[in-house]
Amino acid sequence: MTGGNNSHLLLERAKEMRNNLTEAEKILWLNLKSKALDFKFRQQHLIADFIVDFVCLSKKLVIEVDGGIHDSQQEADAERTKVLNERGFKVIRFNNKEVLNNIDSVLNIIKHELLNADVPPSGARGLVYLQLVLILFSE
């Protein structure tokens, strides 16, 4: 768990991040908060020692919007996802380009995950999800 001082710093950082969303995060947040998906989301929310981009707490679904990816960030993201999975959260990731250019497909994937969120996350499920994303975005 986070320490008292560390929690305070993370909460302050989350507040700052809510006021400085990327363009892709802004677009996704506008769609998520409109309740078009019929689920409540929070943005820049603290879970464990991490600030997640978006979360639907009732379905334990975390949505991350990633900028440019490099090897060290992928390793950090994998560790972060592992910790969140261990706490019962399913994590799905989109890159900025996917959100900016294919918001309808992104929302369809999120809706699918919300409706099927009762299945606990696992490595195999993540692979199936990755294949689904590749199929949707390759069309």
Structure description:
The structure is a single chain. The protein has about 140 residues and is α+β, with helices and mostly antiparallel strands. The chain has a single domain, classed as VSR Endonuclease (Endonuclease, Chain A, 3-Layer(aba) Sandwich), CATH 3.40.960.10. The protein is built from 6 helices and 4 strands. The protein has a 4-stranded mixed beta sheet with strand order 1-2-3-4, with helices on both faces. Strand 2 and strand 3 form a beta hairpin. About 5% of the residues have low confidence.
Tags for this entry?
Endonuclease, Chain A, alpha+beta, four-stranded mixed beta sheet, 139 residues, single chain, 18% strand, 6 helices, globular
Question: Topology, pairings included?
Answer:
Layout: H1 4-18, H2 23-33, E1 42-47, E2 50-56, E3 61-66, H3 71-86, E4 90-95, H4 96-101, H5 103-115, H6 123-138
